[in-house]
Amino acid sequence: MLRTRNRERSNLLKLIVECLIAERSVCAAWLSGSVSRGSDDALSDLDVHIVIDDRSMDQAIDNRKLHAADPARPMLLMDNFRNAPVGGAYLLAHYEGEFGPQHVDWFWQPESKSRLPDDEKILFDRVGLPTMPGGQWRREAHGPQAPPLGADPSVHDLLTHKMEFFWAMTLIVAKHIARGNGAVVDRMTSVIARTLVEIAALSGAESELPETRESLSLPSGLGTTSPRVQFDALRRLAHYAEALCERLVARNVMVSSEAVRQIYRFFCLTEYLATRTCHSETGVA
């Protein structure tokens, strides 16, 4: 299972690099995060940073979802301008994997505002960008704080984003349960439960779903409980999200059933790792 995930991620990265090199507006690209540092495990995602010629930047932002589909077909995409670099864009993408999604965080930024971090993995650099200390780059990597969807999003856009956010973050919660990061599990599970409350309120679905209170109730100190209890809570939230999804189809708010199936597959993998205490074998720590 773990070798398969590592192989899938390596193959996906190879395809990403090939697509970026083939696009002449791309000046440079690098990886950040655990894969760049060599501290990754089989559950780690890819953080891909792309520098675009300034003249092509607006077009790259407009076409970001098409570009994310160049290496492989994504099953789930989520915008979040809050994560975008200065003058750029961010997109979260899930790609099909045998044991759950392969997660890629895409970052696009203009050449004029770009510096290469001196301690990350450079994929290529066509223009000889200046470098800067990696620590400083990470502190300055994102632009000014902004709403995830920009100004004045519609109710439909808010509901869609919140539902995409919920499913994307369940993957993060499952990963941290497997890694034994109880504090992160506690915090992130509360965040996604609150997201479901917001979706139910925004869509007027609270009265239609009498199981709301039970579904969204989390054990006190969830991060200190057993992995099985943590996964039970996560699945309860996911089942409630599916019930919400069914009621939102009429409003054209949808997350593909294929994406949800992939996420449940990831739950199975991470629960297996957590309950079998395979951390030393997998490198999950």
Fold and architecture overview:
- It contains 11 helices and 8 strands.
- By secondary structure, the chain is α/β, with parallel strands linked by helices.
- The protein folds into 2 domains: 139 residues, Beta Polymerase, domain 2; 128 residues.
- Strands 3-4-5-2-1-7 form a 6-stranded mixed sheet. It has a two-stranded parallel sheet with strand order 6-8.
- Strand 4 and strand 5 form a beta hairpin.
- Helix 6 runs antiparallel to helix 7, helix 6 runs antiparallel to helix 9 and helix 7 runs parallel beside helix 9.
- The protein starts with a helix and ends with a helix.
- The C terminus is likely disordered.
Task: Label this structure with key terms.
285 residues, alpha/beta, 11 helices, 8 strands
Quick structural overview:
The chain has 285 residues and is of the alpha/beta class. It has helices at residues 2-22, 34-37, 57-62, 64-68, 134-140, 155-179, 182-203, 212-216, 227-248, 257-275, 279-282; strands at residues 26-32, 46-52, 74-79, 89-95, 102-110, 116-117, 121-125, 131-132. Strand 4 and strand 5 form a beta hairpin.
Secondary-structure-based class equals alpha/beta
Q: Radius of gyration, rounded?
A: 19 Å
- Number of domain modules: 2
- What's the shape? globular
CATH C-level category of the largest domain: Alpha Beta
